[in-house]
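Postdoc handover notes: sequence design on the structure in folder B. Input tokens:
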């Protein structure tokens, strides 16, 4: 069973297991940097036996100071864009990848609710950052605000795992087509 989200990401029945199989096959490693999900992605991954062969670990950086201290997020980016922004998600993912040596890193920052949202960044807004040696970027997702907090966090975590899997496929294709080591 698959559910398509925003016509770009396919969420399979067990995205963590799919990621594990792909990363094992390709010899890649993953790191995570989580804010709004509070370690949920790492928890989903570490529920799989043997995941330590591909999951280097993660950072749970709920406060801005932790994002700055542990991941190297530029304080100016937080001031200019806020902590729930594409720029901060991008810097979080890049910081996690650089600090762990993983080929792929993902990050999440968002508003899980029920409070804390604004007109510009309503509850359910989640930015997922992705970093590989080829690209670092972030995507914005709007998870329905009427969902309970735990459901917003859960959906964000599953999206992030699916994005990491997609990025591993893209990075592998680039390495194969352009002669880089993968």
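Designed sequence:
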């Amino acid at each position: 069973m698959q559910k398509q989200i925003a016509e770009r990401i396919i969420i399979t029945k067990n995205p963590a297991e799919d990621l594990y199989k792909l990363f094992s096959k390709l010899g890649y490693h993953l790191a995570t940097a989580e804010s709004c999900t509070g370690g949920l992605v790492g928890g989903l991954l570490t529920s799989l036996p043997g995941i330590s062969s591909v999951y280097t670990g993660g950072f749970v950086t709920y406060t801005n100071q932790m994002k700055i201290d542990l991941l190297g997020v530029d304080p100016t980016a937080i001031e200019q864009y806020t902590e729930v922004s594409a720029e901060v998600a991008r810097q979080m993912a890049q910081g996690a990848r650089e600090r762990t040596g993983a080929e792929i890193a993902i990050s999440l920052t968002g508003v899980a609710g029920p409070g804390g949202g604004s007109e510009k960044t309503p509850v359910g807004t989640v930015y997922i950052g992705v970093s590989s040696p080829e690209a670092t970027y972030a995507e914005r997702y709007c998870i329905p605000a009427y969902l309970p907090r735990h459901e917003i966090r859960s959906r964000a975590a599953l999206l992030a795992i699916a994005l990491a899997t997609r990025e591993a496929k893209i990075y592998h294709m680039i390495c194969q087509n352009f002669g880089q080591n993968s």
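Context for whoever picks this up: The first helix runs from residue 15 to 26. Don't rerun without checking with the PI first.
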